[in-house]
Amino acid sequence: MVEISVSQLIKKFGDKTAVFIPEFCFPAGEIIGLVGNNGAGKTTLFRLILNLVKADSGKVFFNVMDNSSVPRHGKDGETAQHISHLDEAWKQYVAAYLEEGFLIDFLTPREYFTFIAKANGIEKQDVEGLLEDYRPFLGDEILGRQKYIREFSAGNKQKIGIAAALLPSPQFVILDEPFNFLDPSSQNHLKTLLLEYKKRCHASILLSSHNLHHTTDISDRIVLMEDGFVIKNISERTDGAIKELEDYFL
Ligand SMILES: Nc1ncnc2c1ncn2[C@@H]1O[C@H](COP(=O)(O)OP(=O)(O)OP(=O)(O)O)[C@@H](O)[C@H]1O
């Protein structure tokens, strides 16, 4: 299991502070919904976690709780290995789909899935079996046709990117607005898929969304950002907590 903690994390673009988070931990084994208005800093936070943009200050740690060869004491007396971006090992625990730029347009979906699998040490003959879990979500249009990724609709590209992120069974998955572009039945398929994935892999899924209903439906925790700050961390799925969130966005 892997949790991600950030410490003194600051990112500015000119005068604009996009992210300012003194300390925060995204726990292991949870679906965490990151919400906030346009420009709140959600995508920038994801990009900082994924080392796609350089922080002005602060650190991101991937705390791996397993029988690591370099054990140290984490929270609650658990042994954890704290990995920063200085150690390339963090990449084996985290996968993400933020936007179309993650895809390779001149490949077919199958070629792309095989490429991702190979990069993660999965044998070519095992890819078809792994894809079975994603068949109801991907559908025949993606799995059945010899079509290049560049020829698919925005929604189908989104599905390809999400399935590719999940395919190597990472312990921590980051998805930026995964419900965007999806038709209502695909949105429901995605919710089921993410809940099953979390259960099967004991993984964390950190996702941003502007859809409060989908987010509260599947999340164990809702984190609210405003102007770069984390202003709420709601872990109880009570009606009161959801009402509090809805009131914020009124
Ligand atoms: N590359 C960049 N150059 C300049 N400003 C940027 C850049 N990336 C983000 N910003 C600014 O940082 C702030 C946070 O943007 P970010 O995209 O992280 O917000 P967000 O919460 O993901 O918003 P949305 O819900 O609209 O996707 C915004 O004011 C945005 O304009």
TrEMBL record:
<dbReference type="GO" id="GO:0005524">
    <property type="term" value="F:ATP binding"/>
</dbReference>
<keyword id="KW-0378">Hydrolase</keyword>
<dbReference type="InterPro" id="IPR051782">
    <property type="entry name" value="ABC_Transporter_VariousFunc"/>
</dbReference>
<dbReference type="Pfam" id="PF00005">
    <property type="entry name" value="ABC_tran"/>
</dbReference>
<dbReference type="InterPro" id="IPR003593">
    <property type="entry name" value="AAA+_ATPase"/>
</dbReference>
<dbReference type="GO" id="GO:0016887">
    <property type="term" value="F:ATP hydrolysis activity"/>
</dbReference>
<dbReference type="InterPro" id="IPR003439">
    <property type="entry name" value="ABC_transporter-like_ATP-bd"/>
</dbReference>
<keyword id="KW-0547">Nucleotide-binding</keyword>
<feature type="domain" description="ABC transporter">
    <location>
        <begin position="4"/>
        <end position="250"/>
    </location>
</feature>
<keyword id="KW-0813">Transport</keyword>
<dbReference type="InterPro" id="IPR027417">
    <property type="entry name" value="P-loop_NTPase"/>
</dbReference>
<keyword id="KW-0067">ATP-binding</keyword>
<dbReference type="InterPro" id="IPR017871">
    <property type="entry name" value="ABC_transporter-like_CS"/>
</dbReference>
<protein>
    <submittedName>
        <fullName>ABC transporter, ATP-binding protein</fullName>
        <ecNumber>3.6.3.-</ecNumber>
    </submittedName>
</protein>
